[in-house]
Amino acid sequence: MSKILIIDDEPGIRTVLTDILEDENYQVFSAVDGFEGLALLKQEAVDVIILDVWLPNMGGIDVLKEIKKEYPEIEVILISGHANIDIAVKAVKLGAFDFLEKPLSLEKVTTLIRNAIEMESLRKENRNLRSSLFMDDEMIGKSPGMMKIQALINQSAASNAKILILGDNGTGKELIARKIHLKSQRADGPFVEVNCAAIPDTLIESELFGHEKGAFTGAIARRKGKFEMAHGGTLFLDEVADMSLNAQAKVLRAIQELKFERIGGEKSITVDFRLIAATNKDIQNEIREGRFREDLYFRLNVVPIFVPPLKDRPEDLKDLIAYFVEKQRGDGEVKTISPEGIKILEKYSWPGNIRELKNFIERITIMTDENVILPDIVTYYLGEKQQSTTSNSLKDFEGMKLNEAKDRFERMLLMQKLEEHDYNISQTAQILGIYPSNLHGKIKKFNIEIKK
Ligand SMILES: Nc1ncnc2c1ncn2[C@@H]1O[C@H](COP(=O)(O)OP(=O)(O)OP(=O)(O)O)[C@@H](O)[C@H]1O
Ligand SMILES: [Mg+2]
């Protein structure tokens, strides 16, 4: 339900507008002046504000400026009398959505509100679209394992059941989560991803639940959390087993009650989303070792989906290769991998799973000018990869001082892990157990080339 705030000192206007808008199924708040209105915004995540131009204490234009400074995402509609229409025009230049002239036409009010809300949700959608552009793969594979996953996606998408996706790095957990969202009734709503491993423990609460301005040092403006942003859609808690026990306790409470408070806020916020979680950790083991709450596990694990590693579904390899090669095709330029080349790829174990395969295919299709990618090219690049990833002989370090050898080892390890993770800094940092900023520093220090 969209939330609307009316700021007007005339009780008559407040009552009339409240009645109309409540009939249209909006949740309506009202305030008698700018101060009261701004105070209310600290408590409520409002979508649209109707603001009188002429207000006591603080003029409408000043209130508008204040709103746009603090909450640029909220659309503001001005109400103006005929005498101050020039001010209303100025307001639109300052970022107001539009203005209404008194006497108010009911029809105009409702249309404008509808347009403003549509504008807000279009913006949200745009942001979502931009993030989903990085994940436009189809789900390829006809192995029994993949067929089972497809069936699970189809069965569970329509329900609201929580889903827990388990599988190694690069097996396709995020892709599965996105497919479920797209097949669900919430497909038009947001898909909000939280990478629990990439957020330091001190910030995770604010990331998930949001905060009020001034809730802690550095909280310079009110901020919506991911829970709130996922309202009406799907919340994807990625790398869920990497959350601290402290954060797990808070998440458990919030998903049990579907209710939480922003940090520094008093009101509890009710949300409605479908929850999907994923991890590449052995979660049973995490529970045994006391690193993951069993009660949270039971909550999340309503529908488990286990994604097998690529080496356990060799039947899929051919289809995946064909798919990724086809995807790489430039302007009409078709490339294929020779059957012998494919055989070589089939023998490799793909520890980085589908992500590694996808990167590899991209690499060899870019690196060869021929239309048919010959086995020696495949062997060459696969060999390069194996060399760079399996060089662990002490001979490599012969004649080196300890510090020099340590640096060399560190550089090799970083290069290998970065490649395995698609040069994704936060993921690689997580695997290595360091902060992304730390990894950035090391990339600079060792002069490592980022290939993406
Ligand atoms: N069945 C599939 N068909 C085609 N592409 C796939 C398939 N599974 C995964 N991919 C692609 O492989 C890449 C890695 O997948 P994804 O990010 O979903 O893996 P993940 O399990 O979340 O990995 P990680 O644990 O490292 O986060 C993505 O580009 C994705 O689109
Ligand atoms: Mg992932």
Write the layout of secondary structure elements.
Elements lengths: L2 E5 L3 H13 L3 E5 L2 H8 L6 E5 L7 H11 L4 E6 L4 H9 L4 E4 L4 H27 L11 H14 L5 E5 L5 H11 L7 E5 L5 H9 E2 L11 E2 L1 H4 L4 E5 L6 H13 L1 E3 L6 E3 L3 E6 L3 H6 L5 H7 L2 E5 L7 H14 L7 E2 L1 H9 L5 H15 L4 E2 L1 H16 L11 H19 L4 H8 L3 H10 L7
Parallel strand pairs: 1-2, 1-3, 3-4, 4-5, 6-13, 6-14, 7-10, 10-13, 15-16
Antiparallel strand pairs: 8-9, 11-12
Helix pairs in contact: 6-7, 8-10, 13-15, 14-16, 17-18, 18-19
The structure holds adenosine-5'-triphosphate and magnesium ion.
Structure in words:
It is a single chain. This protein has 452 residues and is an alpha/beta fold. The chain has helices at residues 11-23, 34-41, 60-70, 85-93, 106-132, 144-157, 173-183, 201-209, 226-229, 245-257, 283-288, 294-300, 315-328, 339-347, 353-367, 375-390, 402-420, 425-432, 436-445, and strands at 3-7, 27-31, 48-52, 75-80, 98-101, 163-167, 191-195, 210-211, 223-224, 234-238, 259-261, 268-270, 274-279, 303-307, 336-337, 372-373. The chain folds into four domains: 3-130, Rossmann fold (3-Layer(aba) Sandwich), CATH 3.40.50; 144-308, P-loop containing nucleotide triphosphate hydrolases (Rossmann fold, 3-Layer(aba) Sandwich); 313-390, Helicase, Ruva Protein, domain 3, CATH 1.10.8.60; 392-452, Orthogonal Bundle (Arc Repressor Mutant, subunit A). It is built from 19 helices and 16 strands. Helix 6 runs parallel beside helix 7 (173-183), helix 17 (402-420) crosses helix 18 (425-432) and helix 18 (425-432) crosses helix 19 (436-445). The radius of gyration is 27 Å and the shape is elongated. The site of adenosine-5'-triphosphate (ATP) has 18 residues, from helix 7 and helix 15.
